[in-house]
Design goal:
Number of strands: 2
Strand content: under 5%
Largest sheet: 2 strands, parallel
Distance between the termini: 41 Å
Structural class: mainly alpha
Oligomer: single chain
């Protein structure tokens, strides 16, 4: 059994995908999308006049669906598997080629989906991505000051969905990243914390 498991892991590291990877990716991503949609519904129910309901409905319908298409799909099988193994106390180290594909897919995702602050930086490059740890600030802070409040609210729905799934604290995530990983205006920052206050206290 150990030899078989090692064989599969070696194949994955070399860039092969397996049924287990596909199944995990689809189950986990669909669950995440369902949580995001739940929080967007809560945001819509607030009837905040600053927010565009039509855009929120669109964000609700299309959130993260780009991960089911190339150039994101195959690399995201590996990205999700890496997180999955880490949560199980194991380590998944893809080959350098696969790691580059994972970084390129992540960059494609954050630069083409408007609920990510990175989308709104006119000078965004792959250097704005921390290639060794996606969840840590990069060397160059992303300028998100042009991000409209409606898309910030979709971002918060994403953050809260992750916090619920991983049983983490969205306030800690915000403090760790605001004006460190992403540069926001004071108005944007106040809006982030106000929206978390309104939605997360219900947990």
């Amino acid at each position: 059994m150990l030899a078989t498991t090692q064989l599969f892991e070696n194949s994955r590291r070399a860039g092969k995908t397996t049924y287990s990877m596909i199944q995990h990716f689809e189950n986990r991503t669909n669950y995440h999308i369902s949580l995001v949609r739940k929080y967007i519904d809560k945001i819509i129910a607030l009837n905040d006049p600053r927010l565009d309901r039509a855009i929120l409905e669109e964000e609700k319908e299309y959130h993260d669906l780009s991960k089911f298409k190339e150039p994101e799909y195959t690399p995201y099988l590996h990205i999700n598997w890496k997180h999955h193994m880490k949560e199980r106390g194991a380590e998944y180290i893809p080959s350098n080629i696969v790691e580059r594909q994972m970084n390129n897919a992540t960059f494609h995702h954050i630069s083409t989906n408007k609920h990510h602050p990175d989308y709104w930086d006119d000078e965004l490059t792959i250097k704005n991505l921390n290639s060794t740890d996606r969840d840590k600030p990069p060397e160059k802070t992303v300028d998100a000051t042009k991000m409209p409040l409606t898309y910030i609210s979709a971002m918060i729905a994403d953050w809260l969905a992750m916090a619920e799934e991983k049983k983490t604290d969205p306030y800690e995530w915000a403090k760790k990243n605001i004006n460190k990983r992403w540069k926001f205006t004071k108005e944007q920052e106040d809006f982030v914390y106000d929206l978390i206050d309104k939605l997360w206290k219900e947990q």
